[in-house]
Design brief:
Low-confidence stretches: 4-23
Shape: globular
Strand content: 35-45%
Mean pLDDT: 83
Largest sheet: 5 strands, mixed
Helix content: 10-25%
Distance between the termini: 67 Å
Radius of gyration: 19 Å
Length: 125
């Protein structure tokens, strides 16, 4: 009986380490008829509201990948990124090797040019 104690503890620790984190709640829908895709993203990269957006990844400080649904053709679209209530700046590219095909790469940075995490909205027109 004494030998099984460490085995049980190790199994319990391993089970906890391999547990899959709970899935994030679905974002609230954006119902604007004038955009093909849109996203409202938190500074941590959480998708708060979305339309035709599959996922968002926070890949590094001030760098995000926003994957657009297959029904949107980025090659024939205009991408607009805004930083609400901020004096910071942003720019985006789509698509590229960092985020892959059918993704928009968003960079947010301060006025000195340093990357900083920031909430943003993206619209694909």
């Amino acid at each position: 009986m004494r030998r099984s104690g460490p085995v049980v503890l190790a199994a319990a620790a391993l089970t906890g380490a391999l547990a899959v984190p709970a899935a994030a709640a679905d974002p609230a829908p954006i119902t604007s008829p004038y955009v093909q895709a849109a996203a409202d993203v938190s500074p941590s990269g959480a998708l708060r509201r979305a339309k035709n957006i599959d996922w968002v990844r926070h890949i590094d400080r001030g760098r995000y990948c926003v994957n657009v649904g297959d029904q949107v053709n980025l090659a024939f679209s205009i991408v607009q990124v805004e930083l609400p209530n901020s004096n910071r700046r942003s720019f985006s590219t789509a698509p590229n090797a960092v985020c892959g095909t059918n993704s928009v790469t968003v960079y947010t940075y301060d006025l000195n040019g340093s990357y900083v995490d920031n909430a943003f909205t993206v619209a694909v027109l």
